[in-house]
């Protein structure tokens, strides 16, 4: 099977440099004190840090040079997202990157190019896709009629309140379509915010009913189905990158506590019952990174291959369970304090609960991996 034969993993100088800069940037801009200070804010992120991030060119890393990007490809964003997850740096980077990739892969258009240039310049963008509580549903009830008017709403639209562009997944004349919408086209009452388990994240329900679209703002191409498939797989991969970074930080925090907390005159980190799970977490994090950068190695500008799909799904399944286990152990190992809101372990277990549902949990991806690997 190709999953056995294809073990390619490369990490070039550009990726290494980006990783080093990203880790330093995130470490300086997102201390745990800063993270907690943003939990109750409206946007959930530091606008100054966002501007600096845009000035570094990170939003254009995966976008073509003719639009003002770097043309390095989406693989080079993986290290950035992992660093963000490690420092719990919030902001619409992942949502903007995915929205840009969806538009780019759907096909060229004047409005699409304008969206991509805006993203590179630092204007946040997001994708509105989910419609029901069943996140595995492929149905689409958000419709564009023959006159270009929208009907329907979307739930859990990430970073909806700060997005300058919204990429709406809909149907037009019986076929899949994207509607490219600028935020000022929406009335304020159209957006209703959600309260999320991960307080570093923001999402909302948006009612698009009655919105009038210009013909050039509608993308309905033959390649759109493939673009939507790739969007979901890239979303799973970037979610895995963030989860892997968060799991590493969670382990660091737990080990630091085990090295300082004493009971019965002994450091609790000396007990094997606590040592062994930490080693298990470390091994799981290393496995997550291997899956991440193997998948990144297989990515390109063309539609994702079968091997790339397998790699993305494996990365998400591994990373989701790793963060869930690491955060659960962090809460337990901190004792009674671990169950309090003031303990940082709470931030990680909330991130784990949210992250595992993004673009499918481990069971979702393993079900599809079974078909890819065994139905031959």
From TrEMBL:
Keyword Flavoprotein: yes
Residues covered by the Acyl-CoA dehydrogenase/oxidase N-terminal domain: 13-122
Occurrences of domain Acyl-CoA dehydrogenase/oxidase C-terminal (ranges): 235-371
One Pfam match: Acyl-CoA_dh_1
Cofactor dependency: FAD
Alphabetical UniProt keywords: FAD, Flavoprotein, Oxidoreductase
MF annotations from Gene Ontology: acyl-CoA dehydrogenase activity; flavin adenine dinucleotide binding
Protein's UniProt name: Acyl-CoA/acyl-ACP dehydrogenase
């Amino acid at each position: 099977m190709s999953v056995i034969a294809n073990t390619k993993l490369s990490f070039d100088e550009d990726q290494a440099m980006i990783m080093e800069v990203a880790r330093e940037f995130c470490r300086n801009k997102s201390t745990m004190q800063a993270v907690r200070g943003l939990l109750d804010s409206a946007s959930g992120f530091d606008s100054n840090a966002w501007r600096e991030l845009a000035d570094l060119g990170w939003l254009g890393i995966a976008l073509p040079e003719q639009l003002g990007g770097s043309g390095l490809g989406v693989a080079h964003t993986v290290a950035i997202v992992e660093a963000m997850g490690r420092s719990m740096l919030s902001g619409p980077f992942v949502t903007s990157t995915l929205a840009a990739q969806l538009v780019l892969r759907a096909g060229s258009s004047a409005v699409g190019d304008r969206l991509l240039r805006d993203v590179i310049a630092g204007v946040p963008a997001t994708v509105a896709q989910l419609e029901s509580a069943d996140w595995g549903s492929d149905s689409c009830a958000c419709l564009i009629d023959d006159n270009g008017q929208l009907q329907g709403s979307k739930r859990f639209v990430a970073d909806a309140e700060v997005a300058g562009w919204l990429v709406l997944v809909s149907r037009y004349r019986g076929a899949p379509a994207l509607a490219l919408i600028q935020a000022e086209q929406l009335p304020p009452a159209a957006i209703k915010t959600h309260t999320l388990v991960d307080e570093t994240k923001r999402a909302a329900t948006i009612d698009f009913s009655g919105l009038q679209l210009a013909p050039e703002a509608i993308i309905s191409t033959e390649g759109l189905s493939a673009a939507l498939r790739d969007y979901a797989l890239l979303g799973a991969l970037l979610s895995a990158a963030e989860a892997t970074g968060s799991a590493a930080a969670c382990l660091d925090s737990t080990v630091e506590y085990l090295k300082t907390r004493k009971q019965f005159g002994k450091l609790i980190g000396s007990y094997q019952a606590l040592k062994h799970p930490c080693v298990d977490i470390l091994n799981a994090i290393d496995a997550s990174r291997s899956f991440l950068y193997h998948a990144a190695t297989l990515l390109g500008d063309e539609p994702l291959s079968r091997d790339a799909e397998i790699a993305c799904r494996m990365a998400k399944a591994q990373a989701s369970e790793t963060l869930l286990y690491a955060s659960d152990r962090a809460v337990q190992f901190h004792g009674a304090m671990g169950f309090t809101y003031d303990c940082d372990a709470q931030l990680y277990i909330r991130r784990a609960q949210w992250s595992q549902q993004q673009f499918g949990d481990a069971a979702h991806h393993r079900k599809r991996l079974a078909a890819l690997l065994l139905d031959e």
